[in-house]
Specification:
This protein has about 375 residues and is an alpha/beta fold. The chain has a single domain (about 40-320), classed as TIM Barrel, CATH 3.20.20. It contains 15 helices and 16 strands. The chain has helices at about 60-70, 85-95, 100-110, 115-130, 140-150, 180-185, 195-205, 225, 235-250, 265-275, 285, 320-325, 340-350, 355-360, 375-380; strands at about 1-5, 10, 20-25, 40, 45, 50, 70-75, 135, 155-160, 190-195, 210-215, 255-260, 280, 295-300, 315, 360-365. It has an eight-stranded parallel barrel with strand order 6-7-8-9-10-11-12-13, surrounded by five helices. Strands 1-2 form a two-stranded antiparallel ribbon. A two-stranded antiparallel sheet has the order 3-16. A hairpin with a 2-residue loop joins strand 1 and strand 2 (about 10). The longest helix is centred in the middle third of the chain and has 19 residues, at about 235-250.
Length: about 375
C-alpha cells in the first residue's frame, strides 16, 4: 500500500471525503423505510448525529432541543458554560468582535477559572428541560468533573483531547487511567480522538462505550496546519472501523465509532457511514442554527490555548433552525440542511436498510466527484460551487 517518498521512507495514500464517492448497488430501497437509528450504552437514538462539544455550538438550550429532535448534543465543561454564570454575555462579546481581535479575546475569556458548581447547574438545567445530558472535558479534568456530572444526573461523559491514546507518558502530572476511569463510571463513556487501528483497539480495552475518530478535520480547527498531524477522515474511519469489527469478533462486544469533524454537507455524512461510522459528530453545520449560542460564529476547542491556539473563529452565518438542519425542509442549496433526509435518500439509493448495511457499500476513488459537470455552479458560486 505504501509508496517510497524518499530514501528509506515510505508513506501510504489516505483519502478524505472530497476524494471518494459511493457507487450504487443492485438493489434500491424506499428512503422512507430505512432505519437510521443507532445505539449508545444501550439507549437508542433516532438521529445518528452528535453535536460537537464546542462553545459556539452547544448550550443548555441547544442540548435540550437536540434531545427533543432525537439526537445528542455534548456540552463542553472546559468552556464558557462553566466559567461564567451568564455565558450569553460572553458569547455576545465574542460574536461582536472583529476578525483581528477574536483569537486574543477568546484566549482572554478562557483564562477565567472554571466554577465547578456550574457543572451540576448545567446538568440540572438540561435534565429539567427533559434533555439527554452529555458532557465533555479534557483528560486532566475528567476524574473531578465526571464525578460531579454523574452525581447531578448526567447521562453520558466524553473524555476528549486532540490526540488520545491508552498509554500517555507524563512526569509533571499523573496521567488519567482510562481503564480505571471507565470502570468507576455508572454512565457510558466516549473517548476521543484517535485515527489509527492499533490505538482504537487499545482504547476499546478501557471499557468505553464509544470512540471518536478524527484529528484536525474540523472547519474551525487548525491543528493540521499548526502541528502537521492528522489522517483524512475516510481512511481514518475505515481503519478504526476495522479495529471495531476485529474487537467484536474477538470479544462479542460491539463498540460504536463516531466520525468527528470534516463534514459540512449531507454527502460527507453519507460517506462517513459508508466508511464504517456508527454515528457522526458535527460542529459547523449546527453552528449555523438559530439555536446555536455562537450567533453564526464557530471556533474550535483548542482556539483558546494560551501559547499555541490550534483553531480560529469562523463566520458560518445563521441559515435556519436546528430542525431544518436535521430534518428539513432545506432552504439552502449546498447540502448543509436536511442531513437525515440526505442520509435516508442515500441509503435508499445504495440499497442499505440500516446504518450497519452502509458499511458494505462500494466506495470508489473519484477525484473529480466535486467538479465533474459543475462548471456553471462553480462559476456562479451556487450549490456545489460554493
Amino acid at each position: 500500500m505504501a509508496e517510497w517518498i524518499g530514501i528509506g521512507k515510505r508513506a501510504r495514500r489516505c483519502y478524505g471525503f472530497d476524494e471518494v464517492a459511493l457507487a450504487p448497488g443492485r438493489v434500491t430501497v424506499n428512503p422512507e423505510e430505512v432505519d437510521t437509528t443507532w445505539e449508545l450504552g444501550g439507549k437508542k437514538f433516532i438521529v445518528p448525529i452528535l453535536a460537537a462539544a464546542m462553545d459556539g455550538v452547544v448550550s443548555v438550550k441547544f442540548a435540550i432541543e437536540m434531545s427533543r429532535l432525537g439526537g445528542v448534543a455534548v456540552l463542553n465543561l472546559d468552556g464558557i458554560q462553566t466559567r461564567y454564570d451568564n455565558p450569553d454575555e460572553v458569547l455576545e462579546e465574542i460574536s461582536k468582535s472583529g476578525p483581528k481581535e477574536a483569537t486574543n479575546l477568546i484566549q482572554k475569556v478562557y483564562t477565567t477559572p472554571i466554577k465547578e458548581k456550574l457543572i451540576a447547574k448545567r446538568v440540572s438545567e438540561i435534565k429539567k428541560g427533559k434533555g439527554y445530558a452529555a458532557l465533555s472535558c479534557i483528560p486532566q479534568n475528567a476524574e473531578r468533573f465526571a464525578a460531579i456530572a454523574e452525581d447531578a444526573g448526567a447521562d453520558c461523559f466524553v473524555v476528549q483531547s486532540t490526540v488520545t491514546t491508552a498509554k500517555h507518558i507524563a512526569s509533571k502530572y499523573k496521567p488519567l487511567d482510562l481503564k480505571e476511569f471507565c470502570k468507576k463510571r455508572k454512565i457510558p463513556v466516549i473517548i476521543g480522538n484517535c485515527v489509527t487501528y492499533d490505538v482504537t483497539l487499545e482504547l476499546f480495552e478501557t471499557g468505553c462505550a464509544g470512540i471518536l475518530v478524527g484529528v484536525g478535520p474540523g472547519a474551525a480547527c487548525t491543528t493540521r496546519g499548526v502541528l502537521g498531524i492528522g489522517v483524512p477522515q475516510v481512511t481514518s474511519t475505515i481503519d478504526c472501523a476495522a479495529a471495531r469489527d476485529f474487537y467484536h469478533q474477538k470479544t462479542g462486544k460491539y463498540i460504536p465509532i463516531i466520525t468527528d469533524g470534516g463534514m459540512s454537507r449531507g454527502g460527507d455524512v453519507c460517506k462517513a457511514f459508508a466508511s464504517g461510522a456508527d454515528a457522526v459528530m458535527i460542529g459547523s453545520a449546527f453552528a449555523r442554527s438559530e439555536e446555536a449560542p455562537g450567533k453564526g460564529f464557530h471556533w474550535g476547542m483548542a482556539t483558546s490555548h494560551g501559547n499555541l491556539p490550534r483553531g480560529t473563529r469562523i463566520n458560518v452565518g445563521v441559515t435556519g433552525n436546528l430542525s431544518q438542519i436535521i430534518f428539513g425542509p432545506a432552504i439552502v442549496d449546498d447540502g448543509s440542511q436536511n442531513l437525515i433526509g440526505a442520509l435516508s435518500t442515500s441509503m435508499g439509493a445504495l440499497g442499505a436498510k440500516m446504518i450497519k448495511e452502509m458499511h458494505f457499500v462500494e466506495i470508489i476513488i473519484a477525484p473529480s466527484i466535486q467538479t465533474e459537470g459543475k462548471i456553471f455552479q462553480a462559476a456562479q458560486r451556487v450549490g456545489m460551487g460554493k
